[in-house]
């Protein structure tokens, strides 16, 4: 059985992080995101090949995963000449398939029991089975209504507030029958959510829901990207190096090749990757994730932030609740806080103040 991973989107909501790093390979701690999805696929012995459906910066992804040798799965790459949308991409990548195929959005993290989803699909002889998950606010997702027997009655992508009738949404994980792909137009953009799924309902085909109430997140915005790190450090999603600890939130994880000088303060949960130096008097506070080859200089403080590789945080600078890309330089005494997101190679000069104003109401103007 094959799996198609839809990993060709531009990741616009995660910009500027995705300008040089396509969303499927943004790091979660020290591993590119796709590794976590491959881990899930590996749990199903029947899945022997993964087709990565790519468009945006495909080379970067191919270079990382090669033929899949290290991951234990065979990996094939299909690069669209132009973005074909979620359904067009499935048709393009699945052209030669003759058996049921698992399809995954390339930005969702979950622990769903895929083998059980496949079993339900077979048992119901469905044309399509999709995994649903309950969320508080479905407006950013595809709303899915079902009947009591688990048949899908309605699929509404990005519902407006007055269109929200239930809490279950499309989790971005499907089992599909390739015979249905013929209805997807060839070589033009087509949406699985707005056109293909509604077509199954219109034709009254067997279209089944598998509701999963376990962990689920779409990492596609800076807030969610930050959230997934918190969830791992709090033990809500189990992943190394926090997976096996009885109380993950107390862990201060320092890679063997990192150097934390005497007099530096680490407060868990936090993660410091290889070859990074934390100088005396510096503080790495709770929910901080520091990538490889970073420098946290004397009396600098990092708290609740994600710092990608090769970034320098100079003396007495403060970085709070923010995300910094690779090769950034934060000058002395600079303050960066409240949801700032800096792209790779950003330079913040000494004493600068950057405030992301996240979750704050827009400023009102006071006119005389
Ligand atoms: N190959 C290819 N080509 N992949 C694409 C294309 C394309 O033209 N467009 C999007 N993708 C990939 C993205 O890389 C991503 O992995 C996946 O398809 C979904 O696209 P998103 O842009 O992340 O969609 P979304 O998050 O707004 O909504 C989708 O996911 C939700 C769950 O996270 C929908 O499927 C919703 O219905 C769903 O609830
Ligand atoms: Mg998404």
Describe this structure in words.
- It is a single chain.
- The protein is of the alpha/beta class.
- It folds into two domains: about 220 residues, Alpha-Beta Complex (Spore Coat Polysaccharide Biosynthesis Protein SpsA, Chain A), CATH 3.90.550; about 120 residues, Hexapeptide repeat proteins (UDP N-Acetylglucosamine Acyltransferase, domain 1, 3 Solenoid), CATH 2.160.10.10.
- Helices cover about 15% and strands about 30% of the residues.
- Helix 3 crosses helix 5.
- The site of magnesium ion has 4 residues, from loops.
What order do the helices and strands come in, and which of them pair?
Blueprint: E1 2-6, E2 27-28, E3 31-32, H1 33-42, E4 49-54, H2 58-65, E5 74-79, H3 85-93, E6 101-105, E7 108-110, H4 114-123, E8 128-134, E9 142-146, E10 152-157, E11 168-176, H5 192-202, E12 207-211, E13 216-218, H6 222-233, E14 252-254, E15 259-260, E16 265-266, E17 270-272, E18 277-278, E19 283-284, E20 288-290, E21 295-296, E22 301-303, E23 306-307, E24 312-313, E25 318-320, E26 323-324, E27 329-330, E28 335-337, E29 341-342, E30 347-348, E31 353-355
Parallel strand pairs: 1-4, 1-6, 4-5, 8-12, 14-17, 15-18, 16-19, 17-20, 18-21, 19-22, 20-23, 21-24, 22-25, 23-26, 24-27, 25-28, 26-29, 27-30, 28-31
Antiparallel strand pairs: 2-3, 6-11, 7-13, 8-11, 9-10
Helix pairs in contact: 3-5
Magnesium ion (MG) binds at residues 105, 107, 218, 220.
């Amino acid at each position: 059985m094959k799996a198609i991973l839809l990993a060709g989107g531009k990741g616009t909501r995660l910009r500027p992080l995705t300008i040089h790093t396509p969303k499927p390979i943004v790091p979660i701690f020290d591993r590119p995101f796709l590794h976590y999805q491959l881990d899930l696929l590996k749990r199903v012995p029947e899945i022997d090949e993964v087709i990565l459906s790519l468009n945006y910066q495909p080379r970067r992804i191919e270079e990382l995963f090669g033929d899949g040798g290290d991951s234990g799965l065979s990996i094939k790459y299909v690069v669209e000449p132009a973005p074909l949308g979620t359904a067009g991409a499935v048709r393009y990548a699945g052209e030669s398939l003759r058996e049921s195929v698992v399809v995954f959005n390339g930005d969702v993290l979950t622990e769903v029991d895929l083998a059980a989803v496949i079993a339900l699909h077979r048992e119901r002889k469905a044309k399509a089975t999709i995994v649903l998950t309950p969320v508080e606010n479905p407006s950013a997702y595809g709303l899915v209504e079902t009947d009591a027997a688990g048949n899908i009655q309605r699929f509404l992508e990005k519902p407006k507030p007055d269109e929200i009738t239930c809490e279950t949404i499309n989790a971005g994980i499907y089992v599909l029958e390739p015979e249905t792909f013929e209805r997807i137009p060839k070589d033009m953009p087509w949406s699985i959510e707005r056109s293909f799924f509604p077509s199954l309902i219109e034709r009254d085909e067997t279209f089944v829901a598998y509701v999963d109430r376990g962990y689920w997140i779409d990492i596609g915005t800076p807030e969610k990207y930050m959230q997934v790190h918190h969830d791992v450090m709090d033990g809500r999603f189990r992943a190394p190096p926090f997976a096996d600890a009885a109380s993950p939130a107390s862990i201060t994880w320092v890679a063997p090749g990192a150097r934390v000088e005497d007099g530096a303060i680490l407060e868990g949960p936090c993660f410091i990757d290889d070859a990074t130096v934390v100088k005396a008097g510096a503080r790495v506070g709770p929910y901080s994730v520091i990538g490889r080859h970073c420098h946290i200089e004397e009396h600098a403080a990092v708290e609740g932030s994600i710092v990608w590789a090769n970034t320098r945080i100079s003396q007495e600078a403060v970085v709070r609740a923010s995300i910094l890309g690779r090769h950034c330089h934060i000058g002395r005494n600079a303050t960066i806080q409240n949801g700032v997101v800096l792209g790779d190679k950003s330079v913040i000069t000494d004493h600068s103040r950057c405030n992301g104003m996240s979750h704050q109401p827009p400023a009102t103007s006071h006119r005389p």
